[in-house]
């Protein structure tokens, strides 16, 4: 509606960088009959302008949602039209509607604006932490593969009780290294996808992996027909183990991943959407926090020199989250089922986790990786 | 072009419907003298929307959708309240009409105070047009600005034109019916419209960020009867049809319509029944 700016698709890329001045470049979203392109957007907190092109055959209502709440929307975009929508957004995870109701929703991540980095540290200084992190990831993948094999075996043998007990244990290792899961996107999708991502939800043949088995064990209380899914899961885990040795972890991925992971916990996982059948969500949260903590610990020496306050504050926040999660520990080292938590309990968790995510999101900037 | 036509037809019908009902009602109850006031309300609202749209456009400000939704919700509630009152007044009047015909109507109207009643209807017409007007103006501006040929704005204008005809036809059609039939049939029709208005009010409050409950989708007819087809558009404009409504909207729609229809139809029978007073 205002003066036309040249379409700037490039801005969509994850790191818009420090070039991002006050006037936000428009972020382009194309909606087709199948969904949004791209399906995931990341913008910095504050004012953003979205340019929505309707390439579908239907009149469009484009919305930015938080749960069922509509944060911003633009109605009546007719096919072939481009409309812009400006929105001032708080950091967090949002969803966007992508045409028909049955289309998968897109995700919109709003990152906290990075604080200016006064003199980024020498990139060479990152080599040490990066190598240590790689070792950590390899160790976790090794353990993940082993536990997954045991889990798969229990599923295939029809030992439901044992399989149920092994499910959160195997996942724990995976959830710890989730910051780098995007480096093996294909495997991540096949192992950890949720039913919501499919047009036909749980009935979709593409719904595989942990959550498919979880549904079988808890919701259907049967291992019938799970054999193929179990085999596929183990094959994926084996393939991950094979790939991980040669995997290069970019510094920005490691550093940014810590924040991304915690942000995801605060924004979407806290609703209990992930382990909806088994209610073992707290296991995942805990492993996510551990995974983020590992990254923070490795980087601490680098950050401590430049911003001791930040380190102290983040330490404290980690302890707070740990203490909160500790309340739900069971005697055998596991966690209370997530549905035993009241809304109040969940909100009590959400606050400190959000604070932690916001702080961690400045890590990249502090290390000059933006 | 077709889609632009349909969107404007839908927005237009939503406004024209209420104006048409008001016009038909005034004509039937012999208060045609109030029509200029109604037209005044319509024209004023249209000019106001156009001015506001062009003004916001000129200063480059964005269309505040949340406030717009809030206003739409409030107006829909007001309109629903008014239509509902009217329907039940009609039912009562229909009974006396059998014996005393028009005189009774005038008398009943007289009791409420002629001037105030007429003025309220003019305001209602103003609000009904204003409710859909802003949205329409911005849509029209967008169609003119984008290089998609002349077909789109022309289609949009044709849509408005046809919706005006629908409003006029409704008013005229109402005039041709005899008073008793008018009350009976428009009453039922208006109850459907009112239910649609109530559901759309709930939707507007959701879009304004005020109401976030019962938002699971009740059913999805997006592939069967999309709201951007001709039939879908007419149903949306007239009865508030949604291709994929939330549970809350379905509950409001049926929760109003079923008891209201029952009360209206039961009360219309000659047997004297306990009759609630509607104010």
Automatic annotation (TrEMBL), chain A:
Keyword tags: Signal
Keyword Signal attached: yes
Keyword Signal (UniProt): yes
Signal peptide: 1-21
Family: Belongs to the EfeM/EfeO family.
PANTHER family: IRON UPTAKE SYSTEM COMPONENT EFEO
Record's protein name: Iron uptake system protein EfeO
Species annotation: Methylobacterium currus
Organism ancestry: Bacteria, Pseudomonadati, Pseudomonadota, Alphaproteobacteria, Hyphomicrobiales
UniProtKB/TrEMBL annotation, chain B:
InterPro entries assigned: FTR1/Fip1/EfeU
Residues passing through the membrane, by range: 6-26, 38-59, 71-90, 119-142, 148-170, 182-202, 250-268
UniProt GO molecular function: ferrous iron transmembrane transporter activity
Localization terms from the record: Membrane
Cellular component, GO annotation: high-affinity iron permease complex
Keyword Membrane belongs to the record: yes
First-listed, main subcellular location of the protein, grouped into a coarse class: membrane
Record key words, sorted: Membrane, Transmembrane, Transmembrane helix
One Pfam assignment: FTR1
Membrane topology note: Multi-pass membrane protein
Database matches in NCBIfam families: EfeU
Family per record: Belongs to the oxidase-dependent Fe transporter (OFeT) (TC 9.A.10.1) family.
Name of the protein in question: Iron transporter
Annotated organism of origin: Methylobacterium currus
């Amino acid at each position: 509606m205002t003066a036309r700016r040249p379409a700037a698709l490039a801005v969509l890329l994850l790191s818009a960088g420090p070039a991002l001045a006050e006037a936000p470049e428009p972020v382009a979203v194309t909606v087709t009959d199948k969904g949004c392109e791209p399906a995931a957007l990341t913008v910095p907190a504050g004012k953003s302008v979205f340019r929505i092109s309707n390439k579908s055959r239907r009149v469009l209502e484009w919305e930015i949602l938080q749960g069922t709440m509509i944060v911003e929307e633009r109605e009546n975009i007719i096919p072939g039209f481009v409309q812009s929508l400006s929105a001032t957004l708080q950091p967090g995870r949002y969803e966007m509607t992508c045409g028909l109701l049955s289309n998968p929703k897109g995700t919109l991540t709003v990152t906290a604006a990075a604080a200016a980095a006064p003199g980024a540290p020498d990139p060479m200084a990152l080599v040490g932490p990066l190598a240590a992190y790689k070792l950590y990831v390899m160790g976790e993948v090794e353990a993940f593969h082993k536990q997954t094999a045991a889990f798969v075996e229990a599923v295939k043998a029809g030992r439901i009780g044992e399989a149920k007990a092994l499910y959160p244990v195997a996942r724990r290792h995976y959830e710890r290294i989730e910051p780098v899961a995007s480096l093996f996107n294909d495997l991540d999708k096949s192992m950890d996808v949720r039913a919501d991502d499919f047009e036909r939800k749980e009935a979709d043949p593409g719904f595989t992996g942990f959550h498919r088995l979880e549904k079988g064990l808890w919701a259907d209380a049967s291992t019938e027909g799970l054999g193929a899914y179990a085999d596929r899961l183990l094959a994926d885990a084996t393939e991950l183990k094979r790939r991980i040795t040669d995997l290069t972890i970019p510094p920005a991925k490691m550093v940014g991943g810590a924040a991304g992971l915690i942000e995801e916990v605060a924004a979407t996982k806290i609703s209990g959407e992930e382990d909806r059948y088994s209610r073992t969500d707290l296991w995942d949260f805990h492993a996510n926090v551990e995974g983020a903590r590992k990254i923070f610990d490795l980087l601490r020496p680098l950050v401590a020199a430049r911003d001791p306050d930040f380190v102290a504050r983040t330490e404290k926040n980690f302890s707070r989250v740990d203490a909160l999660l500790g309340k739900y520990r069971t005697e055998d080292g596991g966690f209370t089922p997530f549905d035993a938590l009241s809304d109040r309990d969940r909100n009590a968790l959400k606050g400190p986790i959000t604070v932690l995510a916001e702080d961690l999101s400045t890590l990249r900037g502090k290390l000059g990786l933006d | 072009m077709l889609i632009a036509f349909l969107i404007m037809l839908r927005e237009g019908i939503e406004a024209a419907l209420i104006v048409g009902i008001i016009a038909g009602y005034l004509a039937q109850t012999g208060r045609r003298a109030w029509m200029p006031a109604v037209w005044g309300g319509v024209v004023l609202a249209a000019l106001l929307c156009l001015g506001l749209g062009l003004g916001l456009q000129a200063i480059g400000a964005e269309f505040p959708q949340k406030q717009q939704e809030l206003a739409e919700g409030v107006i829909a509630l007001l309109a629903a309240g008014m239509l509902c009152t009217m329907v039940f007044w009609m039912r009562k009047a229909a009974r006396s009409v059998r014996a005393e015909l028009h005189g009774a109507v005038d008398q009943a109207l007289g009791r409420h105070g002629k001037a105030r009643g007429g003025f309220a209807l003019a305001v209602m017409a103003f609000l009904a047009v204003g409710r859909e007007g802003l949205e329409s103006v911005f849509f029209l501006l967008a169609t003119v600005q984008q290089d998609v040929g002349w077909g789109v704005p022309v289609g949009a204008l044709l849509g408005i034109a046809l919706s005006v005809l629908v409003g006029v036809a409704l008013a005229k059609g109402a005039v041709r019916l005899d008073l008793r039939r008018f009350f009976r049939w428009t009453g039922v029709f208006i109850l459907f419209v009112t239910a649609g208005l109530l559901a759309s009010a709930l939707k507007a409050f959701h879009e304004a960020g005020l109401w976030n409950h019962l938002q699971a989708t009740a059913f999805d007819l997006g592939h069967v009867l999309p709201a951007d087809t001709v039939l879908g558009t007419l149903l949306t404009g007239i009865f508030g049809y949604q291709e994929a409504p939330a549970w809350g909207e379905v509950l409001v729609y049926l929760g109003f319509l079923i008891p209201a229809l029952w009360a209206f139809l039961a009360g219309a029978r000659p047997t004297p029944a306990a009759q609630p007073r509607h104010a």
